[in-house]
Amino acid sequence: MSALPALQPEPGNHFAAAQERFDQVLAWLRSKQALAMTHSDLERELEDRSREALRLAYQGWLDAQAPGQAEAPVVDAEGQPRTPKPQLHGRNLDTVFGRVKVQRIGYGAEGATSLHPLDGQLNLPAEVYSHELRRRVAKEVSKSAFDETVATLQEYTGTAIPKRQVEALAQRAAQDFDAFYEIRRQEAAGVGEGTGSVLVLTSDAKGVPVYQPDLRPATRKNAAQQRRKLTTRLTKGEKAHRKRMAAVTAVYTVAPYARSPEEVFADLRRQPPSDDHQPRPRPEGKRVAASLVETPAQMLEEAFREALSRDPGRQKTWAALVDGNKAQLGILRKLAKKHNVELTIALDIIHVLEYVWKAGRAFHDEGSDALEHWVLERLGRILQGHAGQVAGGMRRSATKRHLAKTKRAPVDRCAKYLRNHKRYLDYPRYLAAGLPIGTGVIEGTVRHLVKDRMLLTGARWRLPGGEAVLRLRALRASQDFDEYWHFHEAQEHERNHRARYADGVVPPTAHTSPRLEVITAGSSLSATARSLRFRLRLEAPDCSGAPASPPTSQHPPLA
After folding, report:
1. 258 and 335 both lie in a single domain
2. Mean pLDDT, to the nearest integer, of 482-506?
3. Number of domains in the chain
């Protein structure tokens, strides 16, 4: 596309340059060149030509706000009056349309950084990148690698953001994660999400490659003590000792789904459903979370708090699905006692099935019909509540066959697994009560939240960046991202602007009479939790002169 001449707006007409550029775009659309294009070529060219017109329109809108003179005395948070500077202060703002410039009056005092009321009225960010550009950064980094995010933003916005800045913006974008969910829990307490009467908590973990300083102490110690046999690769049994476990949780409600052990057995055998088969109910109100920083105990405590906000009266049936990890079981029992919750803990049937398959290979050849028959027979008995008998029977069979110690090892492991977790294998009771017995939700969550993004080829993470990406992915997976972003912008307004003025009030300026009201911990967020919305709301300013009470912020102002 050929360069167009620079345009100067007419005095008093801030949008003249944008109008002329739009007219040029329309004139080009009527040209022979445009009419000869395919639709896809035209689409791309039109986007390129229109972006500059939109940038000029944005610039005209900002120019119309200038100079941003305050209509009330400017007093900083320390109570010190500020006086206007003689010259306008300019700052750049990178947007989805390109770079624009904001010209505004600064109010200063000796030894103090100037205040700019127009920045507060427009809720401009502290750095050069606009909030909308930052929102797109947050969404892109939650989906793909940082390098790919840089390229995507360059292609679709024309704005080049260095990789290091993208990483920093991602961390800043995720900083209000805890505050968002804390406030939402307070507002949603006692308001049931969905119709499901079964409240499910489940957790798992996944290793994420990190740099050595960010390993947990025990892993870092093992890495330091490791003496590798080869310099170019690991040998059998050696570990890289470069992963840090990310704790993952999921909380959701679901309608009861009563089944018989025979029906579950038929499902696992992939048998076609009968004509009267009822479809499985879908999980509702699912909230997922993952963290490299928090411990499994802290993450499960957070999951309990989320569940209690949905069912403070403990009227739902609480269930936890586990894979048999001893530490995980101890944490769940401790938390259930602490919060006075009657919690039913069920062992995931798929984990049980894997143990049985490994044991069966000690008796029958891999891939044989005899192996499959052996496994399915014992699985059916486990589903009927006879796990102890199955464990004893396979051990006796191994002894009678005089299996070598190494060959019978998976048999002993399976039997021990079944006996140690017998109290969590009461499948007839779980199924009759309509409780889930599979950890498909958390397995899918681990794969989506952690594996698909954090384990990209060659990726190795530092804790701040990894934690930020996990939080942003969790917001999107829980379908909370849009609500969170409105809340985040409100918190940014508090940190960057309101916290710098007396009584938390940014003085209105001549061309921006509406004021920004933010949602904070002391505010009512919504009449109902299900339609909860965090927002920046435009309202007419209070002309009585009474200062608005400052919102409570959990974060200090930026330096």
Report:
1. yes
2. 96
3. 4
Tell me which residue of 448, 194, 440 sits closest to 307, measured CA to CA.
194
- Evaluate if residue 332 carries a pLDDT over 90: yes
Q: What is the pLDDT of residue 2?
A: 40
Is 296 inside any structural domain? yes
Are 442 and 532 in the same domain? no
387's torsion region: left (phi>0), alpha (psi -120 to 50) or beta? alpha
Confidence of residue 507 (pLDDT cuts 50, 70, 90): very high
Residue among 24, 391, 432, 112 at smallest CA distance from 262: 432
| Burial of residue 18, with CB atoms counted within 10 A of its CB: 0-12 exposed, 13-18 middle, 19 or more buried | buried
Q: For residues 419 and 60, give the distance between their C-alpha atoms in angstroms, rounded to a whole number.
A: 74
Among 256-260, 334-338, 525-529, which range has the highest average pLDDT? 334-338
Q: Do residues 330 and 278 share a domain? A: yes
Q: Per-residue pLDDT averaged across 223-240, rounded?
A: 63
539's CB contacts (< 8 A; 6+ apart) are 514, 515, 517
E strand residue ranges, 292-438 = 317-322, 343-347
Beta strands in 42-121 (DSSP E): 74-75, 81-95, 98-108
Q: Which domain holds residue 51?
A: 16-65
Are residues 191 and 301 located together in one domain of the fold? yes
Measure the CA–CA gap between 428 and 295, rounded to whole angstroms.
Answer: 33
pLDDT mean over 222-249: 72
Amino acid identity of residue 358, one-letter, is K
pTM: predicted TM-score of the whole model, two decimal places: 0.84
Residue type, 447: R
The DSSP secondary-structure symbol of 527 reads S
